[in-house]
Amino acid sequence: MWKQNRSVSTYVIGAIDICLWDINGKITGQPIHRLLGTCKQSVPAYSSTAFHETKEEYAEEALHFKELGWRAHKIHPHGDPKYDIEISAAVRAAVGEDMELMLDSMWAYRYDEAMRVGRAIEELGFYWYEDPLVEEDIYNYVKLHQKLDIPIMSTEYAPGRLYGMTSWITQYATDILRGDVAVTGGITPLIRLAHLAEGFNMQCEIHHGGNSLNNVANLHVTMAVPNCEFYEVFPCTGANRYGLVEDIEVDSAGLVHAPTKPGLGFEIDWGLVQHEKTATIE
Ligand SMILES: [Mg+2]
Questions:
Q1: Distance from the CA of 43 to the CA of which of 37, 159, 203, 281 falls in 20 to 30 A?
Q2: Which candidate, 94, 155, 100, places its Cα nearest to that of 128?
Q3: What is the CATH number of domain 17-273?
């Protein structure tokens, strides 16, 4: 199905691929992660911020999740290098040293800005530095990667998806690979992407899936690869939770657990679908 990306989105290809894995799991009576090769039963979740006007609000939100028992927190800042450093410092000051912090700059900077922010969050002991530059700029990623010590994570929307990863690896442009079932085009290419990273002893941190059912599919892949450390919850306000009878829950230790039922193992709320229906296309 991959070649269809020339005319349809990877979101569509991914939805069909996930559906086929769900059917396969239901036929065999196994959760999808077991078909892929389960290698763990839980991972820590990280809270991934929405946009906030002030650094104080960012700090408050991080503290809220720390108090709930979550172990890691990721900031989506303003995209203004100077204020992004201030936000990062304010969040670190609020949560102290014993919560992992990440910064996702969402492709905001030029090279010189990315260097400045990278150096600052290195000093603040951040865990990774995500998407400082656009994915079209491998040239400057290579330079950035040579100079910074903090792990760089890119490739969330890298051109070519799975097939684009080889350039990032062979050019030493990133430390951590990234993908998810929607953007990468399903469970099949995502598991291959994670295994490709594993072959180079690299991590592959799985991005949130944009909706509840995609997040479930991501969770199955996460449980079946040794090199994805975290589960992303975005946005933490709950707007991403929709359409399932029960959703993935983070426990009081900040962990999410491997699904136990056959297939995806989570039920679509068909009553809600019926209720929200506006038209039927035939
Ligand atoms: Mg991101």
A1: 159
A2: 100
A3: 3.20.20.120
